[in-house]
Specification:
By secondary structure, the protein is mostly helical. 82% of the residues lie in helices and 0% in strands.
């Protein structure tokens, strides 16, 4: 009799487990919406082309003057050079650091513009400058730190590839660097919007790391096509800059360079703000209008 009762109990619990699925079902992870983010980035860029270009132009021009004062006009304008000395690598590092800072500041300035356009609010560049300037020390320092870390990680594969000087080893050692750069960009893409909007200061790295967790490769899928478009624009713009600079027309080469950078960096900077807002909506249930309320 007891044996039959035990069998009945086991059958009862097996039936309950099968009805509940064994364990509590985890809520399905919401998709990031890569196509929507990419489309919105270019849509906002085109709808507010002049303000976006103006912000990007000013930051790019200031960055060009900064690089010029440090490494010379040729390096500042990314002109081709036959210099293969150790100083050439240092100049490239300086210009790369300036480029990263210019993009970060562009993204910081365009954060509120992005949300204003999304919410059909009036666009006012003057309102965007003060929050971006207040956040600029933290943004610049943290982005510089990221670039230094990437260089330190990239140096051993580069040195190994140069030392052995074989195609196979070069491909193996250097092939992973673009993926590392893309992954790093995805992890810390929302650093600037987070610092500007949440006023996290030097906690921006940690905040970006936390927000992008579990969505990094989806973010990479959104970043890659936008970056390729930006790279194509920068490449096309390099031709007139090179021509003007070689003809000695530096006064014209600088604004053309800044305008090209503004056009190239705009969609990616807008994408950073859209990704930030989308991640907060998914993970924290905060809508775009609530994100934008911090500026009011």
């Amino acid at each position: 009799m007891q044996k039959q009762d035990n069998q009945a109990l086991r059958a009862y619990f097996r039936d309950r487990v099968s009805q509940t699925g064994g364990t509590r079902e985890q809520p399905a992870r919401q998709p990031l919406g890569i196509g929507t983010l990419i489309g919105s980035s270019f849509s906002i860029m085109l709808r507010q082309l002049l303000p976006v270009l103006l912000v990007g132009f000013v930051t790019s021009l200031l960055g060009a003057f900064l690089a010029w004062s440090m490494v010379g006009i040729d390096a500042a304008l990314n002109l081709e050079s036959d210099d293969v000395s150790d100083l050439a690598g240092l100049r490239d590092l300086v210009t790369a650091c300036v480029d990263v800072l210019v993009f970060a500041m562009t993204a910081a300035c365009l954060a509120q513009l992005t949300y204003d356009v999304r919410l059909n609010r009036p666009v006012s560049i003057a309102r965007y400058l003060l929050p971006a300037l207040k956040a600029s020390p933290a943004i610049c320092l943290q982005n510089s730190l990221l670039l230094i870390v990437f260089v330190l990680i990239a140096l051993p594969p580069i040195i190994t590839a140069v030392y052995f000087d074989t195609i196979v080893i070069s491909l193996v050692m250097l092939g992973g660097l673009p993926f590392l750069a893309l992954w790093g960009c995805s992890v810390f893409l929302v650093l600037a919007p987070a610092v500007v909007i949440e006023r996290t200061g030097f906690g921006g790295l940690k905040r970006s790391w936390s927000l992008t967790k579990t969505y990094r490769w989806q973010i990479a899928g959104a970043v890659l096509p936008v970056w390729l478009c930006s790279f194509a624009i920068a490449l096309a713009g390099a031709l007139p800059v090179e021509f003007l600079a070689r003809q000695g027309h530096t006064a014209w080469a600088l604004p053309v360079f800044a305008a090209t950078n503004a056009l190239a960096s705009g969609p990616l900077a807008i994408l950073a703000s859209l990704v930030y807002a989308r991640l907060r909506e998914i993970k924290e249930g905060i809508s775009v209008d609530q994100v934008a309320d911090v500026f009011d």
